[in-house]
Design brief:
The complex is a heterodimer.
Chain A lengths: L1 H36 L6 H77 L4 E9 L7 E4 L12 E3 L4 E8 L4 E5 L6 E6 L5 E6 L5 E4 L12 E4 L11 E9 L8 E6 L8 E5 L8
Antiparallel strand pairs in A: 1-2, 1-12, 2-5, 3-4, 3-12, 4-5, 6-7, 6-9, 7-8, 8-11, 9-10, 10-11
Chain B lengths: L1 H18 L13 H12 L2 H18 L6 H19 L5 H26 L9 H30 L21
Helix pairs in contact in B: 1-3, 2-3, 2-4, 2-5, 2-6, 3-4, 4-5, 5-6
The chains are: A alpha+beta, B mainly alpha.
Amino acid sequence: MKKNSRRQGKGSVKTFRFVLFTGTVVTFALILLIIILGDQQVGPVHKVIFEGAGPLQKAVAKISDSVHSVKKKYIDLLTVREEKERLWRELQECRTTAYANRGAVALNARLRKLLDFKESSNQPTITAQIIGKDPSLWFRSVIIDRGSIDGVGKGMPVVTGEGIVGQVYASSSDYSKVLLAIAPSSAIDVLLQGSRIRGILKGTGKNLYRLEYILKTAEVFAGDRVVTAGYGGMFPTGLPVGIVSKVTRNRRGMFLEIEVVPAVDFRTLENLLVIEREKKVFN
Amino acid sequence: MLTLSFIAVGLLLVVIQTTFFMPSPLWIASPDLYYILIGYLAYNFTFLRGIVVILPISMVLDVYSGTIIGMYPTICYLGYFMLKFMVDKMPVRKSLYQLPLVALSYLVVNWVLLMMLDFFQPQAIAGWEWFPILLRVFLIYFFSFPLFRFFTFLDKRLRGRISSTRFTRSLPGNQFRQDE
């Protein structure tokens, strides 16, 4: 009896569950049907669902974005070495080009000065380039790539756009040696441009001249311009030589001690002009 | 062949010194590479062969530098004879002491030459200054290590004998000269 009553109880529970499940499904189906076929308005139920699902969706979206970001970074990382090498090569090329451009600009400026000098002076000139420099500590001379075939001869003055450089000391058929004006053995007849006082400009072996044989009675000041006198016929008259930088009046002696800064920067000499003149042999 | 090769090397050193090591006419830190060769010749070449090698090199130097013809042959031969004399007369022959001697002889030769020129042609040259000359002495000493190695290598290759003796290696036994 007890067994029969238990079986009947279990059967009724199953029936109840079936009815409940079916009822729920049918109810939801009806609700869905009503919603679909209804006025398509977002109701309070939808809003509740919105509010409940929103944070979840937001969190998942964030995680998804992070994953995508990491993935993108990883892929970028794989190509970054090649990119870096490419950019580095480009940078090197740009630097080389910029360096070459700067050199070209400087060369252009120097050559323009030479050209200006060549055009302004009425004398025939020969352009030359320095190919070697005197390595000794005692002398100052340079070797240029022009010789007697080009018309260069001993004693010819050598200049740049800024002023005098020196004079040709010796020449072979294709090359010449130029004794720089700053050489200790160099001596040039010069004038102070303003006062027309004459003196002898001597080299010191450094980037400086010494102006000698100017009497103490003469008025000489720092800043006075010194130009070639042209008396010996070696240099043309009026070529810039330098600017007086220091004047010393010693108690003893007849002459002033004058230092002159060269108009030409001998540290950056490259291109020169040899002025073609009749040969003047000098000692 | 050996003589001609060392003449060629000497001329190359002179050209390098007057171009690569002279960025401007006022540059003072230019090593006198030719003088290191003079030192090597004095230590390793026979008297006559050394003289033959030095002659064209010093003549080219005379053309490239200065206004006093004969100055560089004087420097080169004075240094050569001095070092040759020291090699023959000094009790120690170890190579390590030979390199400072090259630099020292350069200082002495330049000083003697400057004294002579100052007496005979005082207007022709710049005065003595310690800093540039000592810088040159240091540069000679600095460059003499690699150049001596190069000269030794070239010398051995040209003479056709390969020796395992290295230039700066300390040699076993008594390094003091034995009476011959």
